[in-house]
Amino acid sequence: MSKNMLVLTEAAIFAALAMSLSLLPDFASWFTPSFGTIPLILFSLRRGLKAGLLAGLCWGLLHFLLSKVYYLSIPQVVIEYIFAFLVMGLAGLFSTPLKQAMAKGQTAKVFSLASLGAITAILVRYLFHFWAGILFWSDYAPEGMSPVLYSLSVNATAGGLTLLVTLVVLYPLLYVQPKFFQGH
Ligand code: 218
After folding, report:
1. Is the entire prediction scored with pTM above 0.70?
2. Residue 42 to residue 5: CA distance in whole angstroms
3. DSSP secondary structure string, 14-79?
4. Is residue 70 in contact with ligand 1, taking CB distance under 6 Å?
5. Which domains occur in the chain, in start order?
6. Whose Cα sits closest to atom 9 in ligand 1?
7. Burial class (CB in 10 A: 0-12, 13-18, 19+), 82
8. Does residue 87 carry a pLDDT above 90?
9. Which of 62, 88, 92, 153 is the residue whose CA sits 20 to 30 A from 52?
């Protein structure tokens, strides 16, 4: 199999894995962490920006295929299911430096770069949800609460929990399976 074909096949597998984790019940309503983020960030760190963006876009599009879209309006859906999922691939910006730090055995740098990848992707994604929360979800705010504060509380919590669950998987994997990130 050619390298390109291998990367595309992996993108499809990781997008499907992310989507299957998105099917877990939202036990804490909109505060629930996004478990699908875990495989998507692992894949982006392994294969880089272009492959990560593709996998992120596929993950977003799979929500339409499986009727898992919360629809309020077309602009809301474009922001929250196209852009917000696409940018999960931004973790791939750190793929090459991560591989270099691994090759040189720079443990602290490896963990910093992997963390930066996860933080960047999750922060940008939840900025989109925060923005959408203000623009489209303000009707759901408790009485007397400002839309900005409501969206911030919901999306900062969900984003923070998403980062937490991602790092809980990412850190041990960097130790026990570094080859995964080196693309072997
Ligand atoms: C305040 C608020 N409530 C709900 C949403 C919608 N939202 C939030 C996070 C993630 C997703 C994508 C599906 O997991 C959605 C649609 C919001 N942005 N803000």
Report:
1. yes
2. 19
3. HHHHHHHHHTS--TTGGGS--TTHHHHHHHHHHH-HHHHHHHHHHHHHHHHHTT----S-HHHHII
4. yes
5. 3-182 (1.10.1760.20)
6. 129
7. middle
8. yes
9. 153
